[in-house]
Design goal:
It holds the Pfam family FMN_red. This is NAD(P)H-dependent FMN reductase. InterPro entries: Flavoprotein-like_sf, FMN_Rdtase-like_dom, NAD(P)H-dep_reductase. It comes from Chryseobacterium taeanense. 40% of the residues lie in helices and 20% in strands. By secondary structure, the chain is an alpha/beta fold. It has a single domain, classed as Rossmann fold (3-Layer(aba) Sandwich), CATH 3.40.50.360. The strands form two sheets. A five-stranded parallel sheet has the order 2-1-3-4-5, with helices on both faces. The protein binds flavin mononucleotide. Flavin mononucleotide binds next to helix 1.
């Protein structure tokens, strides 16, 4: 199975990327394409710029989605919503193909240092990603990242770890059947 994985962040110390990497350890027999949104840097979307054509990176983002079987991602939350970096890639790509996620099964996650774990961006994505072709199979938000996650060993809290593992297993069952 080909997995496209990404964090909705361009931070070099992204905690969402750490969460994605932790989850990917459970997919060691699969082909993983962990992309970095920094490689999809584009001008801020505008309808005027769009008239001059689409950046290659927008096409590339859609292509990496086309080439995968499933998507595993974790969204960073800025001011209760998507980061500007993710939103920009999303906006450009949606103008080429509104079904950005191309009906691929998705494990959708979020984390933040706060107690809601990026729950606002999660709620937005959970509500609206399906309109953009995401087939969301499971969701998981990790609150208080710096208390609940160790960079070496991953999720620390036993209950949260149990919940995450359950969702990973459920995701696997749903995408392999
Ligand atoms: C501009 C800005 C706005 C933020 N807004 C929120 C927010 O609304 N909710 C939240 O939980 N954390 C917020 N944070 C904290 C981020 O969750 C934190 O920086 C986290 O590390 C971002 O994820 P990343 O490390 O994967 O980029 C904000 C951070 C920045 C820089």
């Amino acid at each position: 199975m080909k997995i496209l994985a990404f964090a909705g962040s361009t931070s070099s110390t992204s905690i969402n990327r750490e969460l994605v990497k932790f989850v990917l350890k459970d997919f060691q027999n699969d082909e993983i394409n962990l992309i970095d949104l920094n490689d999809f840097d584009m001008p801020v979307f505008s309808v005027d710029r769009e008239k001059k054509g689409f950046p290659d990176a927008a096409h590339h983002f859609l292509k990496v989605i086309e080439d995968c079987h499933v998507i595993i991602c974790s969204l960073a939350e800025h001011n209760k919503s998507y980061t500007a970096a993710f939103k920009n890639v999303f906006d450009w790509a949606s103008r080429i193909n509104v079904k950005v996620f191309q009906n691929k099964p998705m494990l959708l996650m979020s984390t933040s240092p706060g107690g809601y774990g990026g729950g606002n961006v999660m709620n937005t994505a959970k509500t609206f990603f399906p309109q953009f072709g995401a087939d969301i199979k499971e969701t998981f938000s990790l609150p208080k990242f710096y208390e609940n996650f160790d960079l070496e060993s991953g999720v620390i809290d036993p209950e949260m770890l149990k919940e995450l593992k359950k969702k990973i297993e459920s995701f696997k069952v749903q995408v392999t059947n």
